[in-house]
Amino acid sequence: MTTRFDDKIREVRSGVCVTLWPQGKGAAWGMAESETPVRTRRVGDTAIIYASDYLNKLSGERIERECRRQLESGSRALVINFQDTELVNSIGVSILMGVIDASEQSSAQLIFSDVNSHTAKLFEMLGLTRHVNLAKDEAEALALLAPQTNAAGSPAS
Amino acid sequence: MTQQRILSSINRDEFVGRDAELQEIVRHASGLTDRRGLVLLAAPGVGAAELLRQAYDQLFLRRGEPVPIHFAFHPNDTTTAGVARRFFQNFLQQYIAYRRVDPSLCEAPLGFRDLIELALPGDYELVTGLVESFERERAAGDESDFVRFCLSAPHRVTASGRKVFHLIDYLGVAGRDESLLGRELAASVARSGGSFAAAGLRRQVISLLRGPEDGREHEDSIHLETLSDEHARRMIESAARRYGIETNEPTRDLIVQQLNASPYLINQLFQAARETKTSLTSFLNCQRLYVDELMGGRINRQFTRILEKVMPQAQTRKTLIRVLYESAAGETHKASLWSWKKRLGVDAAEFERIVEALHVHELANSSAAFIEVNVDSYVWMDYLRCQYRLEVTGEARALVVATTLLETLKRAPQTMARKYRRESALGLRDLVGYFNCQNVPASLFHYDRFAAEHKGADTESINEALDAEPDLIRLPQIVHGAAASAYSANIPSDPERCVVGHGFEAGDYTDDNEIVWLVVEIESKLEASREVTEEWCQRLTGLARDSGFSRVRLWLIAPEGFSPDACKLLNEQDAYGSSRRQVELLNDRIRSTIREAQAGRADEYEMVIPMGSDTELIAAQAVEQIARRVNFRPEAINQIKTALIEACINAAEHSLSPDRKIYQRFRLEDDKLVVTVASRGVVPAKLPGDNGHEGRPGSETEDTKSRRGWGLKLIQTLMDEVEFERVDDGTQLRMTKYLRP
Known about the structure:
The complex is a heterodimer of chains A (about 160) and B (about 750). Chain A has about 160 residues and is an alpha/beta fold. Helix content of chain A is about 45%, strand content about 15%. In chain A, helix 3 runs parallel beside helix 4 (about 90-105). In chain B, strand 17 (about 660-670) and strand 18 (about 670-680) form a beta hairpin. The longest helix of chain B has 28 residues, at about 395-425. Chain B is globular, with a radius of gyration of 33 Å. The chains are: A alpha/beta (about 160), B alpha/beta (about 750).
């Protein structure tokens, strides 16, 4: 597995140690994570949101919040890029269902890109692929969206 | 080299079957435990008195501290002062014998003057002082002061710096005065700071050591049960050699069975054989001697002595024999206490004493409302029957002797047959006792399937096929097993061949999961017929109905299995049917699982993580490293990691865990990785009953937009086997992934 994931494990390990301290006085890992912004960029009317290495409740909710923000600010399509995502859990996946709902309500298109094979199988097992298309990479995702969206754009954050 | 005998009646090498207990006493004497006392709770006639004497000899010959002191209450002790005096002299004599390293002094007829003369110079002052005080107290004429002084001898010796270990034999305690004295002696030993081993009848000894107001347990205790058949046989061989009595294998076996492997009774019989010069080489000789003993020998005197203590007046004793015999002859062998009291015609206090004495000697078992005669002892029943015929119905003695001899001779082959049946029985009570939610191949409980698939195959092939069998039965957890005969007298089977097992399905302690397994091993030379099978199904169903069992599982076992019609009937009744072969295979499987679990494994890893803060990632990384060691494919490793993460999340979300920890175990086996995830706390309301049999995620019926609750289903999809295991608190999920090339 990648070095980035090992770094995350080290972060978690420090979090485990920290939990020995009284709650609220040093739960550093959770705090640091909650402050990490979700990386996004805009390509025309399309917002590309980058999922983190572990899709769980916290990171899932951050993605959901960012997606809603993008839709409210006029994005006509969303691409969630899972290129960094090595592990997902069912809570994280269930939150993606909220993103699917939100984009359907805004009549926006939603595509998942760069999903590794294991995660793709999980999405399939959990029925997500009945509601969202998977693209090999961002280029393929944008190509699928091209007829409806403007190809020009720049990173939003 | 044979150990020298001091107080013991037989040589150490002839004293069989009690090595562990002997060691335990010596351990206590050596101060290797933190309890000051050891109580031996003895069934009647199991040789507890000899055990204490053997322990004394061992401690005496071992030397060093503490000084062993043995004292036995005798049934013939008449006065409290007499017992106290005997204790005092006994104590002093054994103390001096030990100090002088002269075992012959222990039981020599010595007076106090002799003892003073024999005391070592270092003990002279102590011994003289004790004797003088003794004489002074005796002359003063106050019995209670005198008794108190006698019992305080250990205290005076320990105060002079000597350690003492008491071996107190309470088996002979009979009356109320002796009981009080026994308690006072225990208290005196306690006050002296000495340690002790005390043996007594198991239904009495605790109350002899402590008053009813003292509920604290200061002592360790061990139970002395009857000898095993094997040890009893060895004891008979020793006794035969010692007394020069000829025996053979069948007669030795008969004696063991008939005397319930009781060392006391065996010894009595062999002493009688020695006196009458009877060789015990035929059943006829054995039974002649036995009947003589019953009618007027040692065995007779033993029971008569107890009954005389229980009921001193001849006329009321006769009534007691009548009541006992008639209760024993009844179907349930028991009667209400009220009816007994009425028939005996004694006042409440006297009645209570009688019932207590019968209970203590295990001639009867009393409860709050009923009294049940102990019919398990051949000897007691034979004695009672003879006494009833002689004393109550007034039959001629010659007739009673003759018919008893005839009956015991007729019974002998049955007694032996019963022993052979017991030895060849499958041990159902033990087997069901091992049921603990294991998953086992269903064909082991369905003879028709087993016969169709495995008949004629060798054990190895059958086991391979069973390993691959997809249809599994999850056994209940059986928490209590007993012979069916303990529930009903209407079950025509040996106790070990028909058992009742109470338990819970899925090991979940709820009303809904409560179940009773009724298991019987039926006799049939060929495949059991439909008629026999139906008869047993009806019997067991009747037992369930009469006992008020709401949910039952019938399991019939026949040596050669069941005929096709019988199998059909079993299937119709949703009952299980197995051949002996199937049960043996099941037994092997269950025991090997238990052995494995007990032995532990070298390739097993354990990990405890706190809940929350994404700690499941640490577990996931650990399991990845472990899975890599046996070359799981990357895809399978990802599946295991995801399943583990889901299990951790489930544990954290649903358990209301008090310690907020997740306990994990990873066990590598030849072809699989077994991951166990446990947490304390609340059991989720709905757990799947079977391994992976719930709906799968993503199925057509699934509402994929329901946001949560996918975890378990995901685990079931990702892993090959998923099972909730029974734990007392919280949940434990076991997940297995097989290694595929």
